[in-house]
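Recap from last week: sequence in, structure out.
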Amino acid sequence: MKAKIDQIVQLTLDFYAKLPKKGKPCLDKKEWTVLSAFVLQRPNKGFEVVALGTGTKCLGKDEVSINGDLVHDSHAEVIAKRAFVLYLIEEVYKAFEGQENTIFEVTQPKKVKLKSDFTFHFYSSFPPCGDATIAPKPDVEDLSEPLKKKAKMDIHRTGAKSSLDTISRSQDVYHALGAVRTKPGRGNPTLSLSCSDKMAKWCQLGFQGSLLAAFIAEPIIPQTIVVGNSQTSLESLNRALFTRFDLDNQNVTLAKTELNFHHDKDELSCDASLFWNPLTNGVIVQGRKQGCIKKHYGTTKAQSQLCRKAIAVAFKRKFEKDFEGIKTYQGLKAKCRQSSDFYLPLYNALNEKFKLNNYERKEKDEFSLIS
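Predicted C-alpha cells:
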C-alpha cells in the first residue's frame, strides 16, 4: 500500500514541478502554498493527474459576490475540486455522445457510472483546514478533555473559526473537537466552510458536485485520500471527515505520506491559486483571473473558469436540451438535485447534522445564466 501511495504522491509532485512558474510561490520571498490533486487510475495503465489546484486564500464576507463571478474560496482542496468538476463535465458529455475515450459508461438514458476498475485518488500536501488540523503534537496523547489555555502549545491549531465562537469566546470552545468552522479571511470573517467540513460533505455527496449529480448514477468519491506534512494525524482526519458526523467512510482509505512538497509551509502564504485540468488552466488572485484590470471587475474578462457562474454556464451549454427554460443558477441546481437518484436525501441529512453544530448555510447566489 505504501508503494502505491508514494507513487500517487510522487506523480503529483513531479507533475506540479513541470507546470509553468506563473501562480507558484516565490521561494526567495519564503512564500508557500498548499497543493491538492485528483489522480485517475486506469486498469493496466497506471496513474495520471486529471485535476490540480493550489492556494490558501479566501475572500472575506464583505468581498463576496452574489453574482457568481468570483471564486470566494481559493484553498487548494476547493480549487482542485472545481477543476475536477470541469473535467468530469467533459467526460460525461463524451459518454452521452457515444465516444469511447471516456471514463464513464452509459447505464440508462441520461445516467452514467464510472467504468469498471477505474478509480480516483485525492492528494493534498497539508491537512484540510478546520477540524482535521487540530491534532496532538508528539508529546500529547489525549485530546478527549476540553482544551485548556495552558495546553495551547500542545496541539496543532487551526485558524478556522468555530460557529460557536459567536456564542462563547472561551478557549475551550474555540478548539472544541468536531465543531463546524468557517475560514479566516483577508482581515474579516468569511462565509466559507472550512475544508474539513467541505470535504466531509463531498465524501458523502460526491466530489462531482450538485450539477453533475443529475447524470451520475452514484457519488464520485476517491478510493484514497492522501495527506502530506508531519502535522497530519490520520485520527484527526478520520474524525473530521467521518466520525464526528456519524458518517459512513464509504470505503475510503485515509493515508499519510512522508514525501515532502517543496512549497510547503513557510513564512508568507502565496496570494495566487493556480489550477489545471486536461481542458484548461489558469491563475486566480482575490477571486478573479490573474492580471485583470480594475475596469473589467464584474465582467466576463475578470471571471475565472472556476467561478460558480462560469462552471454553471459551461455545464448548461453542454446539456442544453435537458435544461431548456432554466435561466438562473438556483433553478439549475434545484433541477439537477431533483433529477439525481441519491443527492437530495444525503444533502438534507447532512444539513441536519450541520445544524446540530449551530451552522446553517443560507444560499443567496441567484444569478442569471443568460449571457
